[in-house]
Amino acid sequence: MAKIEFDPSTVVNALTKAGIFEPVERAAVRWSGYSLRSWASTDREGVPYIPTLLLTTIGRTTGELRSNALFYLRDGRDFIVVASKAGSPSHPDWYRNIEASAQAWVDVDRKRVPVRAEVLDDAERTRLWPALVAMWPRYEEHQTKAAPRIVPVVRLRPIR
Predict the structure, then answer these.
(1) Does pTM surpass 0.85?
(2) Cα–Cα nearest to 54, from 116, 93, 106, 115
């Protein structure tokens, strides 16, 4: 039997054109712990697959739950995420939501975990930044592109 090979970017592009990528991505991360976006991005960049969580925040203006798939790094029991928005001059909406309410949830390893979000101070950001860039080298490019905005790094601390 012939082996079928999938190009991850082709899968993501097809789902995007069909208008169903975001709900499929959220379901994939929530139920399998695996991100299609991470698969495509890391394949394209030639780096190993990066663990991805689904962060759910409370919308600061609507009060509705909002979910975003994000790369993460573990720091002990905590999850570390980067609010890079690909180097945009503005913060991502999820970051603005956690500024308004630090209560959030992560879906990771097929478990939903309540967390409290904390923006890292300069010393902690400086300590973790090299590991984050080693994981996803584009973070350095995002920081340069975002200047003068400092790309925030956020600790998601499990509540238990």
Answers:
(1) yes
(2) 106
| Contact present, 15 and 37 (Cβ < 8 Å) | no
**pLDDT digit string (tens) for the chain, length 160 residues:** 666 666 777 887 888 898 888 888 888 888 888 788 888 888 888 888 899 999 999 999 999 999 999 999 999 999 999 999 988 999 999 999 999 999 999 999 889 999 999 999 999 999 999 999 999 999 999 999 999 999 999 999 999 7
Query: Given this structure, which CATH class describes domain 50-158?
Result: mainly beta
Cis ω before 148 (30° cut-off from 0): yes
Cα angle value 44/73/77 (rounded, 5°)? 155
The enclosing H or E element of 112 equals strand 111-119
